[in-house]
TrEMBL record:
Record family assignment: Belongs to the membrane fusion protein (MFP) (TC 8.A.1) family.
Highest taxon above the source species: Bacteria
Gene Ontology annotations for the cellular component aspect, listed alphabetically: efflux pump complex
Alphabetical list of NCBIfam families matching this protein: RND_mfp (TIGR01730)
Cross-referenced InterPro entries: Beta-barrel_RND_2 (IPR058792), MdtA-like_C (IPR058627), RND_pump_MFP (IPR006143)
Domain Multidrug resistance protein MdtA-like C-terminal permuted SH3: 313-365
PANTHER family linked: MULTIDRUG RESISTANCE PROTEIN MDTA
Protein known as: HlyD family secretion protein
Organism lineage string: Bacteria, Pseudomonadati, Pseudomonadota, Betaproteobacteria, Nitrosomonadales
Protein backbone atom coordinates (compact mmCIF):
# COMPACT_ATOMS: atom_id res chain seq x y z
CA UNK A 1 0.00 0.00 0.00
CA UNK A 2 2.79 2.38 0.90
CA UNK A 3 4.62 1.48 -2.28
CA UNK A 4 1.57 2.35 -4.39
CA UNK A 5 1.31 5.70 -2.68
CA UNK A 6 4.93 6.46 -3.51
CA UNK A 7 4.30 5.53 -7.16
CA UNK A 8 1.24 7.74 -7.27
CA UNK A 9 3.13 10.71 -5.83
CA UNK A 10 5.93 10.11 -8.31
CA UNK A 11 3.47 10.19 -11.17
CA UNK A 12 1.86 13.35 -9.85
CA UNK A 13 5.20 15.10 -9.37
CA UNK A 14 6.46 13.91 -12.78
CA UNK A 15 3.31 15.13 -14.52
CA UNK A 16 3.60 18.45 -12.75
CA UNK A 17 7.20 18.82 -13.90
CA UNK A 18 6.21 17.92 -17.47
CA UNK A 19 3.49 20.57 -17.39
CA UNK A 20 5.94 23.15 -16.10
CA UNK A 21 8.45 22.27 -18.84
CA UNK A 22 5.71 22.36 -21.47
CA UNK A 23 4.57 25.77 -20.22
CA UNK A 24 8.15 27.05 -20.24
CA UNK A 25 8.63 25.78 -23.81
CA UNK A 26 5.29 27.18 -24.96
CA UNK A 27 5.89 30.65 -23.60
CA UNK A 28 9.56 30.77 -24.59
CA UNK A 29 9.20 29.32 -28.09
CA UNK A 30 10.12 31.66 -31.00
CA UNK A 31 7.29 33.50 -32.69
CA UNK A 32 6.43 32.44 -36.27
CA UNK A 33 7.89 34.90 -38.77
CA UNK A 34 5.64 37.81 -39.63
CA UNK A 35 4.86 38.06 -43.34
CA UNK A 36 3.01 40.41 -45.63
CA UNK A 37 0.08 38.95 -47.53
CA UNK A 38 -2.25 40.11 -50.30
CA UNK A 39 -5.90 39.14 -50.51
CA UNK A 40 -6.91 37.82 -53.92
CA UNK A 41 -9.90 39.72 -55.33
CA UNK A 42 -11.55 40.60 -58.63
CA UNK A 43 -10.48 43.66 -60.60
CA UNK A 44 -9.17 44.92 -63.92
CA UNK A 45 -5.89 43.80 -65.52
CA UNK A 46 -4.15 45.47 -68.43
CA UNK A 47 -1.27 44.46 -70.65
CA UNK A 48 0.87 47.55 -71.20
CA UNK A 49 4.21 48.75 -72.50
CA UNK A 50 6.02 51.90 -71.38
CA UNK A 51 8.67 54.14 -72.85
CA UNK A 52 12.33 53.38 -72.19
CA UNK A 53 13.36 57.01 -71.70
CA UNK A 54 11.38 60.11 -70.82
CA UNK A 55 9.19 61.47 -73.58
CA UNK A 56 8.52 65.12 -74.35
CA UNK A 57 5.38 67.21 -74.68
CA UNK A 58 5.44 68.85 -78.11
CA UNK A 59 3.23 71.33 -79.92
CA UNK A 60 1.50 70.25 -83.11
CA UNK A 61 2.74 73.49 -84.66
CA UNK A 62 5.95 75.25 -83.67
CA UNK A 63 7.78 77.68 -85.92
CA UNK A 64 11.18 79.22 -85.33
CA UNK A 65 10.78 82.29 -87.49
CA UNK A 66 13.25 84.61 -89.20
CA UNK A 67 12.75 87.10 -92.04
CA UNK A 68 13.24 85.74 -95.54
CA UNK A 69 15.39 88.77 -96.33
CA UNK A 70 18.42 89.95 -94.39
CA UNK A 71 18.28 93.45 -92.96
CA UNK A 72 18.25 95.70 -89.92
CA UNK A 73 15.40 95.18 -87.45
CA UNK A 74 13.27 98.33 -87.35
CA UNK A 75 10.21 97.25 -85.31
CA UNK A 76 9.45 94.34 -82.96
CA UNK A 77 5.69 94.36 -82.44
CA UNK A 78 5.31 91.50 -79.92
CA UNK A 79 6.76 90.46 -76.57
CA UNK A 80 7.47 87.03 -75.15
CA UNK A 81 4.27 85.43 -73.88
CA UNK A 82 1.97 87.40 -76.22
CA UNK A 83 -0.92 85.59 -77.88
CA UNK A 84 -1.01 86.39 -81.59
CA UNK A 85 -3.44 85.69 -84.41
CA UNK A 86 -2.65 84.16 -87.78
CA UNK A 87 -1.06 86.67 -90.22
CA UNK A 88 -0.42 89.18 -87.41
CA UNK A 89 2.75 91.22 -88.03
CA UNK A 90 5.47 90.28 -85.56
CA UNK A 91 8.53 92.12 -86.83
CA UNK A 92 9.58 94.59 -89.54
CA UNK A 93 12.97 95.21 -91.13
CA UNK A 94 14.13 98.60 -92.37
CA UNK A 95 12.47 98.96 -95.78
CA UNK A 96 12.28 102.69 -96.58
CA UNK A 97 14.00 102.08 -99.93
CA UNK A 98 11.42 99.47 -100.94
CA UNK A 99 8.57 101.74 -99.87
CA UNK A 100 10.03 104.48 -102.11
CA UNK A 101 10.29 102.00 -104.99
CA UNK A 102 6.66 101.04 -104.48
CA UNK A 103 5.57 104.70 -104.53
CA UNK A 104 7.62 105.25 -107.71
CA UNK A 105 6.02 102.21 -109.35
CA UNK A 106 2.54 103.44 -108.38
CA UNK A 107 3.27 106.86 -109.95
CA UNK A 108 4.59 105.18 -113.08
CA UNK A 109 1.38 103.17 -113.24
CA UNK A 110 -0.69 106.34 -112.94
CA UNK A 111 1.30 108.00 -115.74
CA UNK A 112 0.99 104.89 -117.91
CA UNK A 113 -2.76 104.92 -117.44
CA UNK A 114 -2.98 108.55 -118.49
CA UNK A 115 -0.79 107.91 -121.56
CA UNK A 116 -2.98 104.95 -122.47
CA UNK A 117 -6.06 107.11 -122.21
CA UNK A 118 -4.52 109.78 -124.43
CA UNK A 119 -3.13 107.33 -127.00
CA UNK A 120 -6.35 105.32 -127.22
CA UNK A 121 -8.51 108.47 -127.67
CA UNK A 122 -6.24 109.57 -130.53
CA UNK A 123 -6.39 106.05 -132.01
CA UNK A 124 -10.21 106.05 -131.92
CA UNK A 125 -10.29 109.44 -133.63
CA UNK A 126 -7.77 108.25 -136.26
CA UNK A 127 -9.98 105.23 -137.07
CA UNK A 128 -12.99 107.47 -137.52
CA UNK A 129 -10.95 109.79 -139.74
CA UNK A 130 -9.81 106.80 -141.81
CA UNK A 131 -13.41 105.68 -142.30
CA UNK A 132 -14.50 109.16 -143.44
CA UNK A 133 -11.54 109.35 -145.84
CA UNK A 134 -12.49 106.02 -147.38
CA UNK A 135 -16.06 107.24 -147.93
CA UNK A 136 -14.72 110.30 -149.77
CA UNK A 137 -12.51 108.05 -151.89
CA UNK A 138 -15.52 105.91 -152.79
CA UNK A 139 -17.36 109.04 -153.99
CA UNK A 140 -14.33 110.21 -156.00
CA UNK A 141 -13.75 113.39 -154.04
CA UNK A 142 -10.15 112.56 -153.08
CA UNK A 143 -7.43 110.22 -154.30
CA UNK A 144 -6.95 106.64 -152.94
CA UNK A 145 -3.55 107.70 -151.61
CA UNK A 146 -5.27 109.90 -149.02
CA UNK A 147 -7.29 106.89 -147.77
CA UNK A 148 -4.13 104.79 -147.48
CA UNK A 149 -2.39 107.58 -145.53
CA UNK A 150 -5.39 107.86 -143.17
CA UNK A 151 -5.49 104.08 -142.63
CA UNK A 152 -1.75 103.95 -141.88
CA UNK A 153 -2.11 106.81 -139.43
CA UNK A 154 -4.99 104.98 -137.64
CA UNK A 155 -2.97 101.77 -137.34
CA UNK A 156 0.00 103.70 -135.95
CA UNK A 157 -2.22 105.42 -133.39
CA UNK A 158 -3.70 102.04 -132.42
CA UNK A 159 -0.19 100.67 -131.95
CA UNK A 160 0.55 103.55 -129.61
CA UNK A 161 -2.62 102.71 -127.66
CA UNK A 162 -1.59 99.02 -127.43
CA UNK A 163 1.89 100.02 -126.30
CA UNK A 164 0.38 102.20 -123.57
CA UNK A 165 -1.70 99.22 -122.37
CA UNK A 166 1.50 97.14 -122.22
CA UNK A 167 3.15 99.92 -120.21
CA UNK A 168 0.29 99.65 -117.70
CA UNK A 169 0.84 95.89 -117.36
CA UNK A 170 4.57 96.45 -116.88
CA UNK A 171 3.91 99.10 -114.22
CA UNK A 172 1.52 96.75 -112.38
CA UNK A 173 4.12 93.97 -112.50
CA UNK A 174 6.70 96.38 -111.09
CA UNK A 175 4.36 97.17 -108.21
CA UNK A 176 3.93 93.45 -107.51
CA UNK A 177 7.72 93.05 -107.46
CA UNK A 178 8.15 95.86 -104.95
CA UNK A 179 5.29 94.55 -102.82
CA UNK A 180 6.92 91.11 -102.80
CA UNK A 181 10.15 92.71 -101.65
CA UNK A 182 8.28 94.56 -98.91
CA UNK A 183 6.58 91.31 -97.88
CA UNK A 184 9.99 89.72 -97.34
CA UNK A 185 10.88 92.44 -94.84
CA UNK A 186 7.77 91.80 -92.72
CA UNK A 187 7.55 88.73 -90.46
CA UNK A 188 3.98 87.47 -89.94
CA UNK A 189 2.57 84.70 -87.74
CA UNK A 190 1.88 81.61 -89.91
CA UNK A 191 -0.67 80.44 -87.31
CA UNK A 192 -2.29 81.59 -84.08
CA UNK A 193 -0.18 80.87 -81.02
CA UNK A 194 2.02 82.14 -78.20
CA UNK A 195 5.34 83.91 -78.65
CA UNK A 196 7.76 81.69 -76.75
CA UNK A 197 10.96 83.65 -77.34
CA UNK A 198 12.20 86.81 -79.03
CA UNK A 199 15.95 86.82 -79.63
CA UNK A 200 16.34 89.88 -81.85
CA UNK A 201 16.67 93.52 -80.80
CA UNK A 202 15.82 96.71 -82.63
CA UNK A 203 18.84 97.83 -84.65
CA UNK A 204 20.34 94.35 -84.92
CA UNK A 205 20.92 92.76 -88.30
CA UNK A 206 18.75 89.73 -88.99
CA UNK A 207 20.31 87.16 -91.29
CA UNK A 208 18.30 84.43 -93.02
CA UNK A 209 19.63 80.88 -92.84
CA UNK A 210 21.70 79.86 -95.86
CA UNK A 211 20.98 76.36 -97.22
CA UNK A 212 22.34 73.76 -94.81
CA UNK A 213 23.45 76.30 -92.18
CA UNK A 214 20.93 76.76 -89.35
CA UNK A 215 20.72 80.25 -87.89
CA UNK A 216 19.10 81.23 -84.56
CA UNK A 217 15.45 82.22 -85.06
CA UNK A 218 14.36 85.76 -84.28
CA UNK A 219 10.94 84.67 -82.93
CA UNK A 220 9.85 81.26 -81.62
CA UNK A 221 6.08 80.75 -82.04
CA UNK A 222 4.16 77.85 -80.45
CA UNK A 223 0.58 76.73 -81.01
CA UNK A 224 -0.50 75.63 -77.50
CA UNK A 225 -4.02 74.63 -78.58
CA UNK A 226 -2.74 71.28 -79.88
CA UNK A 227 -0.21 69.25 -77.89
CA UNK A 228 1.02 65.66 -78.04
CA UNK A 229 3.72 63.48 -76.47
CA UNK A 230 6.63 61.96 -78.36
CA UNK A 231 8.14 59.00 -76.51
CA UNK A 232 10.77 56.36 -77.38
CA UNK A 233 9.59 52.74 -77.07
CA UNK A 234 11.90 49.73 -76.96
CA UNK A 235 12.26 48.07 -80.35
CA UNK A 236 11.06 44.78 -78.79
CA UNK A 237 7.75 46.39 -77.78
CA UNK A 238 7.24 48.34 -81.00
CA UNK A 239 5.56 45.48 -83.00
CA UNK A 240 2.84 45.28 -80.33
CA UNK A 241 1.80 48.90 -80.70
CA UNK A 242 -0.92 49.96 -83.13
CA UNK A 243 -2.25 53.36 -84.17
CA UNK A 244 -5.43 54.16 -82.22
CA UNK A 245 -4.53 52.16 -79.10
CA UNK A 246 -5.42 53.89 -75.81
CA UNK A 247 -2.65 55.15 -73.57
CA UNK A 248 -2.04 56.90 -70.27
CA UNK A 249 0.19 59.96 -70.05
CA UNK A 250 1.92 61.06 -66.85
CA UNK A 251 3.92 64.25 -66.44
CA UNK A 252 6.78 64.83 -64.03
CA UNK A 253 5.29 68.27 -63.40
CA UNK A 254 1.92 66.72 -62.36
CA UNK A 255 2.81 63.29 -60.92
CA UNK A 256 -0.43 62.87 -59.00
CA UNK A 257 -2.66 62.54 -62.07
CA UNK A 258 -2.58 60.81 -65.45
CA UNK A 259 -4.19 61.86 -68.70
CA UNK A 260 -5.93 59.62 -71.25
CA UNK A 261 -4.45 59.57 -74.72
CA UNK A 262 -4.37 57.65 -77.96
CA UNK A 263 -1.50 56.58 -80.24
CA UNK A 264 -1.56 58.69 -83.40
CA UNK A 265 1.76 57.82 -85.08
CA UNK A 266 4.46 55.18 -85.00
CA UNK A 267 7.80 56.06 -86.57
CA UNK A 268 8.59 53.89 -89.64
CA UNK A 269 12.19 53.40 -88.56
CA UNK A 270 14.31 52.45 -85.54
CA UNK A 271 16.37 55.16 -83.86
CA UNK A 272 19.94 54.09 -83.24
CA UNK A 273 21.92 56.13 -80.73
CA UNK A 274 25.38 55.11 -79.56
CA UNK A 275 25.41 53.46 -76.10
CA UNK A 276 21.60 53.49 -75.90
CA UNK A 277 18.97 50.87 -76.57
CA UNK A 278 17.42 51.05 -80.01
CA UNK A 279 13.99 52.60 -79.88
CA UNK A 280 10.98 53.50 -82.02
CA UNK A 281 9.41 56.93 -81.46
CA UNK A 282 5.63 57.08 -81.07
CA UNK A 283 3.31 60.07 -80.83
CA UNK A 284 0.35 60.09 -78.44
CA UNK A 285 -2.46 62.67 -78.53
CA UNK A 286 -4.11 63.94 -75.35
CA UNK A 287 -7.76 62.85 -75.32
CA UNK A 288 -8.46 65.83 -73.08
CA UNK A 289 -6.14 68.58 -71.93
CA UNK A 290 -5.80 69.34 -68.20
CA UNK A 291 -7.14 72.48 -66.59
CA UNK A 292 -3.61 73.53 -65.73
CA UNK A 293 -1.83 74.87 -68.80
CA UNK A 294 0.63 72.48 -70.38
CA UNK A 295 4.00 73.70 -71.54
CA UNK A 296 5.78 72.38 -74.59
CA UNK A 297 8.94 70.67 -73.42
CA UNK A 298 7.50 69.00 -70.30
CA UNK A 299 8.94 65.53 -69.70
CA UNK A 300 6.30 62.81 -69.92
CA UNK A 301 5.88 59.04 -69.70
CA UNK A 302 3.52 57.01 -71.87
CA UNK A 303 1.88 53.70 -70.98
CA UNK A 304 0.28 52.12 -74.05
CA UNK A 305 -2.58 49.75 -73.21
CA UNK A 306 -2.24 46.71 -75.48
CA UNK A 307 -5.15 44.71 -74.01
CA UNK A 308 -7.39 44.83 -70.94
CA UNK A 309 -9.70 42.53 -68.99
CA UNK A 310 -12.41 43.68 -66.60
CA UNK A 311 -13.52 41.95 -63.38
CA UNK A 312 -11.05 39.08 -63.45
CA UNK A 313 -9.34 37.36 -60.56
CA UNK A 314 -5.94 38.94 -60.02
CA UNK A 315 -2.94 39.06 -57.68
CA UNK A 316 -0.07 41.50 -57.32
CA UNK A 317 2.62 40.57 -59.83
CA UNK A 318 5.23 40.69 -57.07
CA UNK A 319 3.56 37.63 -55.46
CA UNK A 320 4.54 35.43 -58.44
CA UNK A 321 7.62 33.24 -58.14
CA UNK A 322 9.40 31.28 -60.84
CA UNK A 323 7.25 29.16 -63.16
CA UNK A 324 4.06 30.99 -62.12
CA UNK A 325 4.03 29.66 -58.57
CA UNK A 326 2.81 31.38 -55.40
CA UNK A 327 2.94 30.61 -51.69
CA UNK A 328 -0.61 30.34 -50.38
CA UNK A 329 -1.59 30.72 -46.71
CA UNK A 330 -3.64 27.76 -45.53
CA UNK A 331 -6.29 27.72 -42.81
CA UNK A 332 -3.68 26.78 -40.15
CA UNK A 333 -1.33 29.62 -41.25
CA UNK A 334 1.00 27.24 -43.06
CA UNK A 335 2.51 28.25 -46.39
CA UNK A 336 1.60 26.02 -49.34
CA UNK A 337 3.17 26.25 -52.80
CA UNK A 338 0.56 26.50 -55.54
CA UNK A 339 0.97 26.29 -59.35
CA UNK A 340 -1.06 28.91 -61.27
CA UNK A 341 -2.33 29.43 -64.79
CA UNK A 342 -2.05 33.13 -65.59
CA UNK A 343 -3.37 35.49 -68.27
CA UNK A 344 -2.70 39.19 -68.85
CA UNK A 345 -0.01 40.76 -66.72
CA UNK A 346 1.73 44.06 -66.07
CA UNK A 347 4.07 45.42 -63.43
CA UNK A 348 1.22 45.75 -60.94
CA UNK A 349 -1.21 42.86 -61.44
CA UNK A 350 -1.45 39.42 -63.06
CA UNK A 351 -4.68 37.75 -64.14
CA UNK A 352 -5.38 34.35 -62.52
CA UNK A 353 -7.11 31.80 -64.76
CA UNK A 354 -6.85 28.88 -62.35
CA UNK A 355 -5.11 27.92 -59.11
CA UNK A 356 -6.57 30.47 -56.68
CA UNK A 357 -9.99 31.55 -55.43
CA UNK A 358 -11.47 34.86 -54.40
CA UNK A 359 -10.41 35.62 -50.82
CA UNK A 360 -7.25 33.51 -50.82
CA UNK A 361 -4.18 35.09 -49.27
CA UNK A 362 -0.78 34.87 -50.94
CA UNK A 363 2.68 35.84 -49.78
CA UNK A 364 4.20 39.00 -51.25
CA UNK A 365 7.23 39.42 -48.92
CA UNK A 366 10.23 37.16 -49.55
CA UNK A 367 12.92 39.03 -47.65
CA UNK A 368 13.29 36.48 -44.79
CA UNK A 369 15.51 33.48 -45.45
CA UNK A 370 13.58 31.17 -43.08
CA UNK A 371 10.37 31.58 -45.08
CA UNK A 372 9.61 28.54 -47.21
CA UNK A 373 6.66 26.27 -47.97
CA UNK A 374 5.51 24.15 -45.02
CA UNK A 375 6.33 26.57 -42.19
CA UNK A 376 3.84 28.38 -40.00
CA UNK A 377 3.81 32.14 -40.43
CA UNK A 378 2.10 35.06 -38.76
CA UNK A 379 0.24 37.51 -41.03
CA UNK A 380 0.91 41.17 -40.46
CA UNK A 381 -1.85 43.08 -38.78
CA UNK A 382 -2.77 44.92 -42.00
CA UNK A 383 -2.96 42.80 -45.10
CA UNK A 384 -2.33 44.34 -48.52
CA UNK A 385 -5.56 44.48 -50.53
CA UNK A 386 -5.45 43.99 -54.29
CA UNK A 387 -6.79 47.38 -55.28
Amino acid sequence: MQQSKKTFRFIIYGGFIVLILAAVWYFSRPEPPEVELAVVTYGNVESTVVNTRAGTVKACQRARLAPALGGQIAHILVDEGDNVEQDQVLLELWNADLIAQRELAERQLSMAQERRREACIIAENAWRESQRTQQLVDKGFISPQAAEDADANARARQASCDAAISDIKRAKAQIRVTLAGLERTVLKAPFAGVVAQVTGEIGEYATPSPPGIPMPPVIDLIDTSCLYVMAPMDEIDAPKIRIGQPARITLDAMPEISFPGRVRRIAPYVTEVEKQARTVDIEVDFSELPDNPLLAGYSADVEVILDSREHVLRIPTQALRQNNKVWLLSQDNTLIERQLETGLANWSFTEIISGLDDGDRVLISFDLEEIKPGIVVRPKASETPVS
